[in-house]
Design goal:
The chain is about 35% helix and about 20% strand. Helix 2 crosses helix 3, helix 6 crosses helix 8 and helix 7 packs across helix 8. The radius of gyration is 18 Å and the shape is globular. The strands form 2 sheets. A 7-stranded mixed β-sheet has the order 7-6-5-3-4-8-9. It has a 6-stranded mixed β-sheet with strand order 2-1-11-10-12-13. It has about 260 residues and is of the alpha/beta class. The mean pLDDT is about 95. It has one domain: 3-Layer(aba) Sandwich (Rossmann fold), CATH 3.40.50. It contains 9 helices and 13 strands.
Length: about 260
């Protein structure tokens, strides 16, 4: 039977749950957050339980993520796929409307235009480095950080995710849950990404490439991820050295192989 993204995360936990899996930098704030496989899985489980228990998210549901590339976005993506549901890529919605979504998770600074769409369920994320709730907000969206705390650290889906079910909607295109994994594995092989690699990805590249490239491909290969938001010019070489980066995606650092670029 084909795998789903939830299986990729489970395999990573069996292999080495304690090792860093996602490290996130925001050079505008100086923020650094590092999540091991176990810590990311905890966030995934809590988020999946919230989506399933509070909003009945399961196979056939669609969840829109109006979120930037972020460690919490990684958890949200894997949580939706763990429920067996479809992620709606909001970048593909040119008119900004999310009429097909059952639930929308949005960064706090993206809530205002969404509040006018009469969406069935809207959750706001502060994206605070410690996972704290929103501040200075008085709109109708529920606060993700406050809601997710009440949910369990272990997730059991009502229905096991079906590899043949829709997993990612990009405009008129669609990838199944199994297709997401197949594409990630194929890309990992093509890029010669291997277990133990540590991949640095800047925000712009991650947004353009999409979650299969920046999240699922390293996960499928057994690699770990260093995400950098708003990188300050000239800082990446030192950061790559400090984080023991072995490969980059979308940026060039002398002495480190750039994925997708001929040697």
């Amino acid at each position: 039977m084909a795998d789903t993204p939830a299986d990729l995360l489970a395999a990573r936990l069996r292999r080495d749950a304690a090792a860093p899996l996602v490290t996130y930098y925001d050079d505008t704030t100086g923020e650094r957050v590092e999540l091991s496989g176990a810590t990311l899985a905890n966030w995934v489980a809590k988020t999946a339980n919230l989506l399933q228990d509070e909003f009945d998210v399961t196979a056939g549901s669609t969840v829109a993520l109006a979120l930037p590339v972020h460690w919490q976005t990684a958890a949200a993506l894997l949580a939706v796929w763990s429920c067996g549901a479809t992620v709606l890529d909001t970048a593909a919605e040119d008119d900004g409307r999310l009429d097909g979504a059952d639930v929308v998770l949005a960064a706090q600074d993206r809530l205002a235009p969404l509040e006018e769409q009469d969406l069935p369920e809207l959750l706001g994320l502060s994206l605070h480095p410690l996972g704290l709730g929103m501040t200075g907000y008085s709109g109708p969206a529920r606060d993700f950080a406050l809601e997710v705390r009440a949910h369990g650290d272990v997730f059991s889906p009502w229905q096991q995710p079906d590899p043949g079910a829709p997993g990612l909607a990009l405009g008129g295109l669609e990838l199944t849950l199994g297709g997401l994994v197949d594409t990630a594995r194929e890309l990992a092989g093509r890029l010669e990404l291997a277990a133990g690699d540590r991949v640095l990805v800047d925000e712009r590249t991650a947004e353009e490439a999409g979650p299969v490239a920046w999240l699922l491909t390293p996960l499928a290969a057994g690699a770990s991820i260093v995400l950098v938001h708003s990188p300050v010019a000239g800082t990446l070489p030192a950061r790559a050295a400090a984080e023991r980066v072995t490969a980059t995606l979308g940026c060039t650092i002398e002495g480190i192989r750039e994925l997708g670029r001929p040697a």
